[in-house]
User: Fold these one by one.
Assistant:
Number 1:
Amino acid sequence: MPQVFCYIYYYNNCCNKTEVFIIKILQLTMDEAVEISKVISNEHRMNILKILSTGPHNVNELSEKLGLPFSTTAVNVKKLEDVNLIITELVPGRGTQKVNSKNYDRIIIDLFTEDVEKDKNVITIDMPIGEYVDCQAEPSCGLVSESDYIGIQDDPRSFYEPGRREAQLLYFRVGYVEYRYPNRIPYGNIASEIQFSAEICSEAPYHKLDWPSDITVWVNDIEIGIWTSPGDFGGERGFNTPDWWLTYFTQYGLLKHWKINSNGSFIDGVKISEVTVNDLNINEKPFISLRIGVKRDAVNAGGLNLFGPNFGNYRQGIIMNVHY
């Protein structure tokens, strides 16, 4: 039976800065998730939530703004209450009146199926994008934290600033970044599969949806394959992108999954090379290196953007999973 997790976010606007916190995670049954989906698949109810995002309203105010009869508005408010998407409180006014408020700012639903017994022989490490050990970057290039630029835009020297560890977005037109993950495979065991996932896209001036870029990945200095990013995505704010970052800049990427096992190397399940996990000599080093970059002689040298958990659409850095 698939499980459904709803991640509930709280937005705190203070001092010209928006802070985002995950305040609770709801684990729902499939039936509960279906009921929520049914309730919000209605234009009137979505409009009610949109109005309530500006502040609390009573049913009369909602009815007036929606241009709907009071009775119709009340029915839709009740349906939203039943699935806990809004709350109703009694507040003093002209007498006591019921005022409705939006309960959540955002709900993200992940659907997946898990085996009852998880694979215990797996190591997972989420690497911050600023924790690279080597790099080469050519303009346009830069580093961005959650609140400001790091160093100077389009200056490769900024990639060596101590503050790079706070990076939530890094970008360059040509070059690479290399990470080294600790090798935690217990002695006497061997790796059967290694996986990486990262939010990534091309790098264009401002943004450009049609801007292909050939992005290459190396593991332990061995090239495992090339993926062509279709574009640099902007114009619509990423779920986690801070408010100060202008919408016509890069906003989010695509979550890509690389996998190397005994059958070869894959991206999102599609085979990209014959390099196997045995070719990587994982047990011979105290670390596992990952290099992501764009070659100078690439057919599509369209740059690269890498996203951290507080930029883009996915709350993660560069995740490595090693199965042994």
Note: The radius of gyration is 24 Å.
Number 2:
Amino acid sequence: MRAFFGRARKVLIVTAVLALTAVTLVSVAPWLLQRADMARTALPWTPPCVVHTGEGTVALSRQEAQRATTAVALEAHGAEDPDTSGIDADVRERLRSGPPADAGPSLTCRASGSGGLERQKLGESGLTPRASQVRSAMEEVFGEQSLGGYEPGGVQDGHGEDSAHYDGRAIDVFYRPVSEENRRQGWLLAHWLVAHAQTLDIANVIFDDRIWNVHGSPGGWWDYDSPDPDNDILSHRDHVHVDVQQGSE
């Protein structure tokens, strides 16, 4: 009899703990979602990408984010009949118009560093093969672009200390002069790069005083710590910076 009451007490305790947990989740979940939206993150238990529209937050798979950013970019660059079927209308509009001036980036994705990547040497263009792959992928979607940050033989100055530009891992895509239209065009590319970061082994995307980093990607985009916030070049307001993962020896 004593053993029976002991088991019954354990069952009651477990039931009470489960009930308390359920109540806590119900009460805390809205706060977590609100915090996630404020931080502009993709929550760990949701699909890996999110788009913040004027109507709310839309979760996307990585493939959906890649398809949406590609279709919108092709559409914006005059491609004939880009396939936009099945893409949420609010997502399409926000990606097309870019984030409002008083808001953060519209799209973010979680990604992880690709373990086992080998360190690469400069090619003839001054880029590593991984960086060259990013350049080719951008050209396929965005057409001819104003590029810089690399040159045959590599660059040795003009960038910050330990810059990925010196390793041939970085490309700058210029949108000059700084204007609302060029800001919109820059975000078309920046969002596309983040959506494709896992596929292209991208490490960092910087634009409009914001940075996305593969290791910090669960937290979304972050404010960029510019050495001179008033300088359009150093704050990356006139160009999108993208660099690829370094790899190991």
Note: The chain has six helices and nine strands.
